[in-house]
Amino acid sequence: MARRRVRNLWRQLVAVVVAAGLWFLFGGQQVVERAIRVPLEHTSLPPGIEMTGEMPTVVDLRVRGSEAALARIVPGELVAVLNLAGAKPGQRLFTVTADDVRAPSGVTVMQVTPSSIAMAFEPATSKLVPVAPEVQGTPAYGFEVGAISVTPPAVEVHGPAGALEDTQAVITEPLSVAGASAPVTDTVTLGVPDRTLRIQQPQRVSVTVDIRRAPIERLLSGVAVEVRGGRGRVPAPAEVTVTVKAAAAVLDRLAAGSVRAFVDAGQGPAGAPLPVRVEASEGLAVVRIEPEQVLLRAR
């Protein structure tokens, strides 16, 4: 009997010590409330539906717990999750409550702000969109940018129907041709300016920029001006200077008669200056004619 009393006494003593320890650890801590901003995530978006516009990425919470429990909260432990299972095309309103917040043990969510969130949805679709490569820089002196080719020339883009309808091209990261004197080829990353759109495979394309010799300008002095439709009349001045532009190979083959200047005597009132026109052989571009007008006089 005495042994049983001693055993019970020890059990009571241990219980008192444990209770005192728990009170010391937790009983003396004050329960407080605190405002905290947490991430807002979404889940269960139905297939064939896409979000449009801006969606809030955070919400403000009013939480309650002991000072120790609130002090132990680390990023990611408190998260609000918006269930989009009922989303349909058009404007929709969703409610966020304390039950939608993942919270650690010892922390109670008292309030969520905002308590409702307006969102817009559209049907999901996809289409092939051409790639528009961005080229930066200036080639070496005497060279210019020629044809630009992309492989593949178009990629499949997914997203809301409205945003996809307005998308005319997929952009690329810049490809530099600074100082180049030969074709430049590189693999670049694709992108779309609208964040609601997504590029399927491939995410990168090959771009080739042809670098060719730039056309050269040349002055042709003393080009005789022919009068058409006006017998017995001569131009004053009788010659003009014509500036042409062409590839070096074309200018090297330039021959007499490649550039012909003339005026039409039937144009304009009598005595008025007439515009000088130029006929040039294939590959030649006329840049300037000096002077641009001449007078006609009797021979």
Structure description:
With 299 residues, this protein is mainly β. It folds into three domains: 84 residues, RNA Polymerase Alpha Subunit, Chain A, domain 2 (Beta Complex), CATH 2.170.120.30; 90 residues, RNA Polymerase Alpha Subunit, Chain A, domain 2, CATH 2.170.120; 83 residues, RNA Polymerase Alpha Subunit, Chain A, domain 2 (Beta Complex), CATH 2.170.120. It has four helices and 24 strands. The strands form five sheets. Strands 2, 5, 8, 10, 11, 12, 14, 15 and 16 form a nine-stranded mixed sheet that branches. Strands 6-4-1-3-7 form a five-stranded mixed sheet. The protein is elongated, with a radius of gyration of 41 Å. The relative contact order is 0.10.
What percentage of residues falls in helices of 4 or more residues? 10-25%
Broad structural category = mainly beta
Question: How much is the radius of gyration in Å?
Answer: 41 Å
CATH architectural grouping of the largest domain: Beta Complex
Given the C-alpha coordinates, what overall shape results? Answer: elongated
